[in-house]
Amino acid sequence: MNGQGGPFGSAAGAPGESSKWIVAVTVMLPTLIEIIDTSVANVALDHIRGSLSSGIDESAWVLTSYLVSNAIIIPMTGWLARTFGRKRYLTFSVLLFTFASLLCGSSTSLGMLVFFRVLQGIGGGALQPMSQAILLETFPPREHGMAMAIFGVGAMFGPIAGPLMGGYITDALSWRWIFYVNIPIGLLAVFMVSLFIHDPPYLRQRSGEKVDTWGIALLTVWVGALQIVVDKGQREDWFQSDFILVLSAVAALALLLFVIVELFVAEHPVVDLRAFRNLSFASGNVVMFVAFFNLLGSIVLLPLYAQLLLGYTATLAGLVLSPGGVATLVTMPIVGKVISRHNPKYVLLLGVLLCSFSTWTMSNFSLTADFGSLLGPRIYLGFGMGLLFIPLTTLTLSSVPRPQMGNATSIYNLLRNLGGSIGVAFSATMFARRAQVHQSRIVEHLTTFDEELRAAVAKGQALLPSRGIHEALAENTALRRIYAQVVRQATMLGFNDAFYVLSVMMACVLPLLLLLRRPAHQTAPGAGH
After folding, report:
1. What is the phi/psi pair of residue 404, to 5°?
2. Do residues 78 and 129 touch, judged by C-beta distance below 8 A?
3. Which of 94, 377, 387, 407 has its CA 20 to 30 A from that of 215?
4. 445 is a domain residue
5. Residues 428/234, Cβ–Cβ less than 8 Å
């Protein structure tokens, strides 16, 4: 850590081999617990509801409040780091997240817990974009693939470990400990940040900026409203609900005004949208949005299909998902090394094709699928995301100048998170609506004039009395069983349609790969050295 800016100095003052790994551990430690906290409370929700005497809908705000505050802070991170200094803001964020975790675990009412979850989200929201920016600035350009592999392992490990940790801790101790375990890790992270993280020269030399008040206010409104719409939409039947309709209109209007203010009014915008003038950056953000739309949408539908139609338990459904996560974690470090020597576009192309192929395979599931039939496509998707995440992040962010890196990673992480949230909501809605459509179409043909239906009912009437059903009830019982099969078939077709749409959407981003620029260190003369 010399006087040339510590790990964030210029190329001449680049960090040593050991110090860059210390920095990586320092920033990934709090980031990992923050990512885990986005899903750790899901499995403990029923225990929280019982302990604090709240209803099911009320307890869901324990999840929503964190996601909303988290989403609002992410795009502001670059501006906040510029304004207060990255090291100071990172320290504050980790401290706030840690202290809020203590308060969450100590809550005695649902209102207290929701409020403290908002504070926790405010503290945690900045950790992902800041850690990504720090890693990209700490590692030299030729090692950006490895830097993003480190970040990607953390980003992918969190959603896998969160539910498992949450379930185990809740059963073994209590739901309060899913928050208390953050405290020692958070304190260690604060200590390491104070020792190993330093502001780069371009941040130290900044003078005071006028606060973009309108930008902050509009950003808060549109991101907050959109996150609530996405989270509550399916439960409220989307635009049949006045609540969702009003919030959607508010989100759309606030977004429009936000874009106008940030591009044409604000002297120092809280989110610099001019970053989208970089075609590689803009294209990469779209691809990442669709990739997480596909990933989260499919891993929500897959266990639902296994439980509703194949009779799997929650544990068995979880076992279907887990190997795919392991495949991603195994693939990422290998990909990080490969793209440091070869064109990342080729690896990215393979990743997109594999993700699209995996969801297309899921669209061919049937009511007779066995465990292996479910496991294969999920593992393909895991390998696909491992091949996609690192080269895409490298291609998207490597062309961004260092002074704009904080702003760029903030936008990138916001669109990644929104892609996942909207993908979950879209997939659940698509499945439910298409199942209804198929059920209506099948039922149209089941009339009293349908000879096959009449024959099936007659067969049921003849067989059911021998199975203990009274003759007077045999006809109605046969009809009910036929209808149950209709519902099963329609539900299966609904899943097929939803997976198929996800597959097509993933394939549609292929032309955007042509717009991504190869990192300068690979295209410059002597890059093969």
Report:
1. -100, 5
2. yes
3. 94
4. yes
5. yes
Which amino acid is it at 53?
Answer: S
Question: In this structure, are 193 and 216 located in the same domain?
Answer: no
Question: Are the CB atoms for 100 and 34 separated by under 8 Å?
Answer: no
Whether residues 245 and 170 share a domain: the answer is: no
Residue 325: which of 284, 371, 381, 388 has the closest Cα? 381
User: Could you read off the pLDDT of 290-339 as tens digits, one per residue?
Assistant: 998 998 888 888 888 888 888 887 667 777 877 888 888 888 888 888 88
pLDDT in tens, 13-43: 445 556 888 888 888 888 888 877 776 776 6
Question: By C-alpha distance, which of 427, 450, 422 is closest to 501?
Answer: 427
Print the domain residue range for 194.
16-207
Say which DSSP state 231 is in.
Answer: H
Count other Cβ atoms within 10 Å, centred on residue 524.
9
pLDDT tens-digit series, residues 78-103: 888 888 888 889 999 999 999 999 99
Residue 3 lies in a domain: no
Is residue 2 included in any domain, yes or no?
A: no
Are residues 112 and 252 located together in one domain of the fold?
no
Kindly state whether residues 358 and 502 are assigned to the same domain: yes
Same domain assignment for residues 290 and 183: no
State pTM to two decimals.
0.79
Q: What length does the chain have?
A: 529
Q: What CA–CA distance (Å, rounded) separates 27 from 132?
A: 9
Contact predicate 59/49, CB 8 Å: yes
**Same-domain status, 261 and 313:** no
